[in-house]
Amino acid sequence: MKKIFSILSIAILVTAFSACSDDENGSSGNTLVLEFDNVVGTSNLVLNTSDQPYTNDHEEAFNVTWLTYYVSNIKLKREDGTVYEDKIKSDGSAGYYLVDEADAESHEITLKNIPAGDYTEVTFTIGVDANQVDQGAQTGPLDPANGLFWSWNSGYIFMAIEGTSPVCTEEGNAFAYHVGGYKEDPENENLINNIKTFTLSFKGDTAPVKADHQPQVHIIFDVLKFFKGTGANISFASNAARHTPKACEDIAGNIEGAFVVDHIHAD
Amino acid sequence: MRLATVFILTLLLSGCTDDDQPVKDPYAFETPSNFPSPVYTFENNPVSKRGVELGQMLFYDPVLSLDSSIACANCHQQAVAFSDPVHRFSRGVDDAAGFRNAPAIQNMAFQNNFFWDGGVKHLDFVPINAVTSKIEMAETLEHVVYKLNRSSFYPQKFKAAFGGDEITSQQMLYALSQFMNLMISANAKYDKYVRGDEHLTAEEAEGLELFENKCRVCHATDLFTDDSFRNNGLDASFEKDSGRERITEFEGDRGKFKVPGLRNVALTSPYMHDGRFNTLQQVLDHYASNVKNSETLDPVLKQGESLGIRLSEQEKLKLIAFLNTLSDNEFTHDKRFANPFVK
C-alpha cells in the first residue's frame, strides 16, 4: 500500500511538473533559440587546455582561459519584413544575455512568446549601450557584482578573452583583451564607443517559428576571426594586456566579422 | 478664567502652526527653488524613508571594506560637507594612499559627472569605485553583498525597503543613492539671500559681484559648477595625474579636472584634485598670480597679457567673505545624514 502511494505521489508530482513546463511554453507563445557556438577556426573551443593548441595568423600558439560577451537588443526579421524585438527592462533583468564559454547553459538564448512566422535574419548588439548604463544600478546578467564592470571608468566589459601564448611578454605569458567603452557625449567626440550592432542573415534559409516548432539558429563566434579581421591582426607579442576603450578600439573592429549564422535547426 | 485663556491660546497657537506649515516629509526629494532640475533616474529608484535610512547605515558601516576598517564616512565627514578634513590623499585599507583628494558629497542628484576625472556618469556607480579600489576599501561587490546577506539585521531592512528575499548589489547601490540624493545643501546664507530672506553684508555683496564677473564662467548656476572639465593652470606638465585624459584617452584632455561645485567650500579644505592648497587665500593666490601655461590651459585663464584672473588683495578678501556665505550649517548638522550607529 505504501509503495502504491509513493508511486502515485511521484506520478502526481511528475504530472504537476510537466504541466508547469507546458504552461511556460504554452500554445500562445512560440520559441526560438539562438545558440552561440564559440570555435577557433575549424576546432571547437576548449578552455584551459594544458598545452597551447591554437595558432593565430602570426603563427603564435595560444590557449584560451576565458571567453565571455554580452548579447543584447535582439531583433528578428520575418520574411514579410516585420520585425520582432526582444524586450529590454531598464533594470537589466530582461533583454541582456551574458554568453560565457565556461557555462554551457549560457550558450543558448531562448526567446519565448515570439510571433509565429518564417524568420530570415537576426540583429543584435555586442555590448551594453548608454541607454542601459545610464539607467543606473542593474541586476541579473548586468549585476556589476558579476565582475564585468569597470569601476574607475564606469561601464561594462562586454567582450573579454584571456589566455596564454609563449610569445606574450606579460606576466605568466598571459594575454587579456577586455573590450569596453560605451560613452557618448555630443560635446566630446573623443570618447570611444566600441559597442557593435550588426545583422546576420540566415543566408536564404528560414527559421520557421510556429506551435510545436522551436527552431534553433546556430551562430558561430570564431576566435581566430576576432584576432584577425578588418579592425586588426592581433599579435600576442606586444600590447597584449588591454583594459581601456581606446586600447581595444582596433580589436573591437573585428567583432562583427567573427560572428556568422552557420545553420538553422528547423526544430 | 486664567486657565481657560491659556487653553484657548494654546488651541489658537497649535491651530496656527498646523495651518501655516503643513508638516513636510523629511524623506521626500525636493528640488530647491534656485537649483536646476535633478538628473538622477528617480523613475528607477525613488527616494523612500526606508531606503534612505538603509543608505545612511551603509554609509557609516565599515562592512563595505575588506577588513571592516573603512566606512564611506571615514573620508567623507559630515562636519565638513562630507569631505576629508585631514588628508590631502585619504587613507584606505592597510593605510594605502590614494592620489586624489576626497571630494565633498552634496547635491549629487543634480550632477552628470562624478570624480575628478568624470569616469563615472551615474550616481549609482559612484560607491563601486570606492568599494572596489585597492587604495580605498579593497573589497569586491560580490563579497560585500555576501556579507550583507549573512548579517543579522540587514536582510530584514533590505526586504522592508526593496522587497525580495535576497540582497542584491543593485539594492545596496540604490540605498546609497537614495541617501546621497537626499544630501542637498541649499540653506546657506547665500541661499537665504537669493530667496529674499536674508541680507548679505557689504563685503559679502561686493564679493558676490566679483564672483559673478570673474568666477561664474566655470562655477555656474547655484550648484557653482558647469559640470565641465578644465585645466586651471596648476601645473605645466601632468606626469603625476593626467586627469580627464585618463578617461577619454585623448591628449587634448590632459590635465583637465572636473570643475568642483563650491558649496560649503570654506569647509572642504584642502583644495584642488591633489589637495595642494590648505586655504581659500592660497587658491585665490593661485588664480591671481601662479597660473601655469600648457597646451590645454583653459582659454578663460589665457585672456589678456598675463595668465589667470586679475585680483587685488582686497578683492580676494571680498571673494573669501562671499565664499563663506556658501557654508550650510543645517546641512552639516542634519540628523538624517548623521552616524546612525551613534545614539
What does this structure look like?
- The complex is a heterodimer of chains A (267) and B (343).
- Chain A has one domain (29-265).
- In chain A, 15% of the residues lie in helices and 38% in strands.
- Chain A has helices at 2-24, 130-133, 223-227, 249-252, 255-258, and strands spanning 30-40, 43-44, 54-55, 61-78, 83-85, 96-100, 108-114, 117-126, 149-150, 155-164, 174-180, 196-201, 207-209, 216-222, 241-242, 259-265.
- Chain A is globular.
- With 343 residues, chain B is mainly alpha-helical.
- Chain B contains 13 helices and 2 strands.
- Chain B has helices spanning 2-20, 49-60, 72-75, 126-132, 141-150, 154-162, 169-182, 189-194, 202-214, 245-248, 280-290, 313-324, 329-332, and strands at 229-230, 257-258.
- A two-stranded antiparallel ribbon of chain B has the order 1-2.
- The longest helix of chain B has 19 residues, at 2-20.
- The model of chain B is unreliable at 5-18 (pLDDT under 50).
- At the A-B interface, loops of A face helix 4, helix 5, helix 7 and helix 10 of B.
Please report the total strand number of chain B as a whole number.
2
Into which percentage range does the β-strand content of chain B fall? under 5%
Shape of chain B: globular
Numbering strands along the chain, what is their spatial order in the largest sheet of chain B? Answer: 1-2
Query: How many beta strands in the DSSP annotation of chain A?
Result: 16
Q: CATH superfamily of the largest domain in chain B, please?
A: Cytochrome c-like domain
Largest sheet of chain B: 2 strands, antiparallel
Which CATH architecture of the largest domain in chain B would you pick?
Orthogonal Bundle
Order of helices and strands of chain B: HHHHHHHHHEHEHHH
The proportion of strand residues of chain A reads 35-45%
Number of helices of chain B: 13
CATH class of the largest domain in chain B: Mainly Alpha
Number of discrete helical segments of chain A: 5
Uncertain residue segments of chain A: 1-5, 10-27
Question: H/E series of chain A, N to C?
Answer: HEEEEEEEEHEEEEEEHEHHE
Q: Mind telling me the C-alpha Rg of chain A?
A: 21 Å
CATH overall fold name of the largest domain in chain B? Cytochrome Bc1 Complex, Chain D, domain 2
Structural class of chain A: mainly beta
Which structural class fits the helix and strand makeup of chain B? mainly alpha
How many domains of chain B? The number is 2
Q: Could you tell me the mean pLDDT of chain B?
A: 92
